[in-house]
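Supplementary Text 2. Reproducibility record for the structural model of the 297-residue chain.

All settings were left at their defaults, and a single model was retained for analysis rather than an ensemble. We include the record here because the model underlies the residue-level annotations in Supplementary Table 4.
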Amino acid sequence: MLRIGIDLGGTKIEIVALDADGREVLRRRVATPSGDYAATLAAVAGLVNRAEGELGTRGSIGIGTPGAVALATGLLKNANSTCLNGRPVKQDIEALLGREVRIANDANCFALSESVDGAGRDAQVVFGVILGTGVGGGIVVSRRVHAGANAIAGEWGHNPLPLPRAEDLPLPGCYCGRPGCIECYLSGPGMAKLHAAATGSSLAPQEIVAAAAAGDAGAERSMRLYEDRLARSLAGVINIVDPDVIVLGGGMSNIERLYANVPRLWAPYVFSDRVVTRLERNRHGDSSGVRGAAWLW
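Retained model, structure tokens:
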């Protein structure tokens, strides 16, 4: 069985084809047509048709998007490719390709990929975390995505930061309209903004990490605050979802010290005498989203 995955992003569209054993047999990408709905769908269909022609067989098709299909209307919502919002993307792509396709949020696709053959491949319940320009998440149970009644399961980034302290105040405003969202503290831009406010030094997240490693006291304080905020936030996830493993993705997942420090810090906030949930780095990196789209079948 050939499985085809599409990552439908704001700047690029990527396709991957996996064989019956999950081995990658084709991958390519094209730029996303800016602001053009019909051209974007045509680009997706073109990638699929060319891939199947090259491989000599048809495959199942899964698509990951930054948004989600609204369950009540079947229309896409919350996508950063705004020309897709409010459109019947699933139905229109199915009409172009002449078959059923499956669509899921890109964080759900990331979690699914890591559950099937990644860092959570031995786990029953996987919580996949995106820590990048935004903060997202997805839940996979028994290798099946749990989307939720409102298609927002796993969206922990727009919950308020738990137990805010003096150093967390004033609560930063979020683009969603609510103050103090986890995303404002744990996204890459959020970390950089808070570090600049505290120290007067404008550094990118990777520069803050390097400065802390070199002994900079302000950078080290920012790192410790980041780790504590991440621990508090993930403890809330553990208390509700109780996953076997939490897998980090996105640019901030490359901070090595998180994997040792955060599980040590989250223990006091988890409602259990012992915490066996593992915190793991992703196995497939930037490829996890498009691979997870293929695994929707």
